[in-house]
Every structure is written in structure tokens, then in C-alpha cells.
Amino acid sequence: MNIINIEHIAKIYQVGTEEVHALADVSIRIDKNEYVAIMGPSGSGKSTLMNILGCLDTPTKGLYDFKGQNVSQMNDNELATIRNREIGFVFQTFNLLARSDALHNVELPLIYAGVPTAERRERARSALENVGLADRMRHKPNELSGGQRQRVAVARALVTNPSIILADEPTGNLDTKTGEDIMALFHEINSAGNTIILVTHEEYIAEHAARIIRLRDGLIEKDEIVKKRLIPDVPNHF
After folding, report:
1. Where would you tag: which of 46, 49, 165, 176 has the fewest CB atoms within 10 A of its CB?
2. What is one Pfam family matched by this protein (predicted)?
3. Phi, psi torsion values for 91, nearest 5 degrees
4. Any idea what DSSP says for residue 115?
5. Crossing angle, helix 102-112 and helix 146-158, to 10 degrees?
């Protein structure tokens, strides 16, 4: 079942008197429970595509259908509703509140959604347990390693039970071993039935996905199934 259907989208930015074509005639379909990596060099359009997929921006032209809803023409409030309910974001820089412990950081999306205190606390605890941080719930970010902070960010992305996880360079600030641990976690999350879209510039990271979409100059250069996919050994948290 298609969860994302993009047809002939383009994104044009006006910079002074010049038009910058960040995306040109891009069409993509992504099914439920897929694990897709988006790759491309600087200036390829992958960040623009990520922003559109994440409902942080809308295309200048074309259709973006998300679970049967045409988000291409939505206003800012409607886009925010889709983001909050349907998309879990994981960023390179973690984006955690420095003065709050891991539990409160994971609770934040549920606070914004108006979820009652007892329910959101239980859901946040469960999310942290699922990423292997049952013993770190009361630790603040400066008391956690880089890998643990990224796990908190992953738990925060999962706590709303989103339709997709959108991860932007999630291993970019991590050493190789810790990055591999995070990729093992993503594999586990995908195996539990979650759809993952991973944006990366690293071939090794992209090869953990089942499919790679390669962009160049705002166009899809190649859309391919990964033949020798990297399957990490993972503990079963889910």
C-alpha cells in the first residue's frame, strides 16, 4: 500500500531576480513498511525533498499524496497537523532540551498533542525501553553519550506512533561504532513494521536500507533495490 505518492513535483526558489530549481519533475512512491535511503551530493536536492516529504515545505508544482491526502496545497496549520500526527523526525544534531531529562524530552510531542500526563509518561517510558534506555530515563543530555542522545531522539520520534520515521543524517555526529549501533536500531524499528526514510550522503549507511533513491541536479538519477543489503545483528526490543 502506498503511504507516499509524489508525482512530477518541482521546487523553485526565488533568490533575488534568479530562479533556483532545487527539484525538477520528481516522482516517487513509497509503500508502508519500506526502508528507503535518499542519497545525493551537495546541491542535488535531497534536503529539499526531505523537507517536502516531512511536510516542512510544499512543492511549487506537482502532487504530494500522503496516505490519501493531498498535502501539496495544505496551509501551514494543516501541514503542522500532519507532521505532529504522522511523522517522526530524527536529526543529526539530536535537538534535545539540555535542562530536561530523557523522559521529558521524549514526552514533548505528546505534551504538544494534549495527551494526559499519566498516558504520555507511560508511552515515553515504553519508547525509551524500546531503544534500550530503560536505565537512563532520568539522565539529562549532558549525562549521556552521543549514541544515547540519538537513541533518545529516536524514542521521541517513535512515541507518537507515526506513519513514517524521517531520519536526516542520523549518524553524522557519531563515531563509526556508535553509528552502526544506531543503524541496527533502525533495522529493528523497520522489522517491527515501521516505514523509514533515511537521508544520507554515506554509501555505507544507505546500504542498510532496502532501496536507494539517488538524486543529482534536482532529478532522480537512479531508484534501485539494494542487492547486498547490510543487515546488522540486533537485540529484540520491539
Report:
1. 176
2. ABC_tran
3. -110, 160
4. -
5. 30
Q: Which three cell numbers stand for residue 206?
A: 544507505
* Angstrom distance (rounded) from CA 2 to CA 99: 40
Cα distance between residue 49 and residue 44, in whole Å: 10
Backbone angles phi, psi at 202, to 5 degrees: -100, 120
Question: At 122, is the secondary structure helix, strand, or coil?
Answer: helix
Tell me: the pLDDT tens digits for 154-204?
999 999 999 999 999 999 888 888 899 999 999 999 999 999 999 998 999
Does residue 237 carry a pLDDT above 90? no
Which grid coordinates are listed for 1? 500500500
Which residues is 19 bridged to in the sheet?
14
Reported as type and span, the H/E element at residue 35 is strand 35-39
Q: Using an 8 Å Cβ cutoff, are 138 and 148 in contact?
A: no
Note the pTM of the prediction, 2 decimals: 0.90
**What's the farthest any 2 CA atoms get from each other in the chain?**
55
Q: Which helix (H) or strand (E) holds 50?
A: helix 46-53
In 3D, which of 177, 226, 235 has the Cα closest to residue 206?
226
Q: Please list the alpha-helical segments (H only) found in 113-161.
A: 117-130, 146-158
| DSSP SS3 for 26 | strand
User: How far apart are the C-alpha atoms of 57 and 87, rounded to whole Å?
Assistant: 14
Domains of the chain: 32-59+80-225 (3.40.50.300)
